[in-house]
Amino acid sequence: MDETRAPYKSEHYTAAFLSAGRIHLQAGLTAYDVQAPALITLGPGVIRSIIQQPEAAIKTLYFKDAFLLLKHNFFENSDLHVLALKDLLLIKTQRIFDLIALTTGEEIIRHYIFALIYEIDAYYKQHPPAISHPVFTKFSQLLHRYSIQEHRLDFYALQLEMTPKYLSAFIKKHTGKSAGEWIDQSILLEAKVLLQNEQLSIAEVSNALHFSDQSVFGKFFRANTGTTPIAWRASIKNPSL
Predict the structure, then answer these.
(1) Residues 66-84: pLDDT tens digits?
(2) Which of 55-69, 164-178, 221-235 has the weakest average pLDDT?
(3) Which of 127, 136, 114, 4 is nearest to 69 (CA)?
(4) What CA–CA distance (Å, rounded) separates 101 from 122?
(5) 116, exposed or middle or buried, with CB in 10 Å at 0-12, 13-18, 19+?
(6) How many whole angstroms separate alpha carbon 36 and alpha carbon 73?
(7) Confidence of residue 98 (pLDDT cuts 50, 70, 90)
């Protein structure tokens, strides 16, 4: 989890142990200021960006589906990405990461990762977390799954069995932003990930995001960032721009 300014996706599951210092993490549409000691868990589809402070000490594990016997909500749910560590869970996490650092055998490492995931799962079962709001959590999950191809508020309202007007007002009341604003931000994150792939033209990025044409995508991007897709791509290559 190196310092980065641009959002990106990983093909792997991520479990990171922040043992000292702090980092700023953007995971999906949620921002966190993470203070050590803490454990961060992210699924492969979760768009993330990290600003790591100089004093931060972090150890990171990356693994694929083959290491998981079951799917676990804490890799996808924005309410569960960051777990503050203390007492026995802190001791166990520290020891597991230390053991992995001393181990070269893949099968043994696999068992240590199983142990870590089991400990996280057991902790959440014993200490159910406070969810921000069930409706917003479900809405966020729908955005994570469908925002690339579904830009209309009507689609999400139908999935949640609400009218578009009620859904937008409900989300605005609980988050300060309307449902439409959240949809736009989710699409924008996907756009920023795709724009970092220089093999894709702006038109191909537009098509991948299911915009009707490149001009509509350009207007959307400029309205939400104040710059064009081409200029944003150039700024990532040259951060001083």
Answers:
(1) 777 677 889 988 889 999 9
(2) 55-69
(3) 114
(4) 23
(5) buried
(6) 22
(7) very high
Does the N-terminal peptide bond of residue 37 adopt cis geometry, omega within 30 degrees of 0? yes
Burial of residue 192, with CB atoms counted within 10 A of its CB: 0-12 exposed, 13-18 middle, 19 or more buried: buried
Q: Phi and psi at residue 15, in whole multiples of 5°?
A: -130, 115
Task: Tell me the DSSP string of 183-231.
Answer: HHHHHHHHHHHHHT-TTS-HHHHHHHTT-SSHHHHHHHHHHHHSS-HHH
Tokens of 136: 């917003």
Cα distances (angstroms) measured from residue 18 to each of 4, 53, 58, 83, 90:
16, 11, 4, 10, 11
pLDDT band at 6 (very low <50, low <70, confident <90, very high): confident
Chain centroid to CA 26: how far?
7
- As a whole number of angstroms, the distance between CA 145 and CA 45 comes to 9
Rounded CA gap, 40 and 78, in Å? 11
Distance CA 121, CA 116 (A): 9
- Going by C-alpha positions, the residue among 140, 125, 129 that lies closest to residue 179 is 140
Length of the chain counted residue by residue: 241
Return the structure tokens found at 202.
């702006």
Of the candidates 95, 89, 86, the residue with the CA atom closest to the CA atom of residue 37: 86
Dihedral-angle region of residue 3 (phi above 0 means left; psi in -120 to 50 means alpha; beta otherwise): beta
Residue 106 CA to residue 61 CA, distance in Å, equals 13
Rounded to two decimals, what is the model's pTM? 0.85
